[in-house]
Amino acid sequence: MSKVLVLNASYEPLNICTWRRAIVLLLKGKAEQIEHNHNGRLIYTDTPLPTVIRLRHYVKIPYKEISLSRRNILHRDSYTCQYCGVRRHDLTIDHIVPRSRGGADTWDNVTAACLKCNVKKGNRTPREAGMRLKNQPRRPFSHVLFEISKHTSNGDSVWQKYVIGFS
């Protein structure tokens, strides 16, 4: 199922929708096609499948909190152990300041870690364990960009040029 990036009238990333929803927006005149599928996939005989559309009128984006979940933490950290750099899908969640020492479940206190590094760190801070974090954890900036980044993580997406300036 092809997904389509929806841009606001200001070219700000707004949402992701299905190609069917994008076609409806185009046919109603509410959006214009910016990019299309270059693989020759057509909707009609001469209409290429859209990959990026832009709304004709500006829509205010409501603020939406990103939930702190295992899946979102792993996505934020690109499924990479933040201590040794190994990339896996069976990572654990590590509290930088351990919960037993007052560490909270917050975006800037949790990080992805492989089981080996998590056990090695144990009930200590990274400094006490002699381990360094690859990246300092932080709260994701925007719910919209966080969702879009899930679809552009391969790095070669046509969407990259529309998302890069807003991350």
Strand content: 15-25%
Query: What structural class results from the helix and strand content?
Result: alpha+beta
- Helix and strand element order: EEHEEHEEHHHH
**How would you sum up the major sheet?**
4 strands, mixed
Overall morphology: elongated
Provide a descriptive summary of the structure in words.
- It is a single chain.
- The chain has 167 residues and is α+β, with helices and mostly antiparallel strands.
- Helices cover 24% and strands 19% of the residues.
- It is built from six helices and six strands.
- The chain has helices spanning 19-27, 70-76, 115-121, 126-129, 143-151, 160-163; strands at 3-7, 13-18, 31-36, 50-55, 92-95, 110-113.
- A four-stranded mixed sheet has the order 2-1-4-3, sandwiched between helices. A two-stranded antiparallel ribbon has the order 5-6.
- A hairpin with a 5-residue loop joins strand 1 (3-7) and strand 2 (13-18).
- The longest helix has 9 residues, at 19-27.
- The chain is elongated and about 60 Å long.
- The model has no long low-confidence stretch (mean pLDDT 86).
In short:
Helices cover 24% and strands 19% of the residues. By secondary structure, the chain is an alpha+beta fold.
Name a few traits of the molecule.
single chain, 167 residues, alpha+beta, 4-stranded mixed sheet, 6 helices, 6 strands, elongated
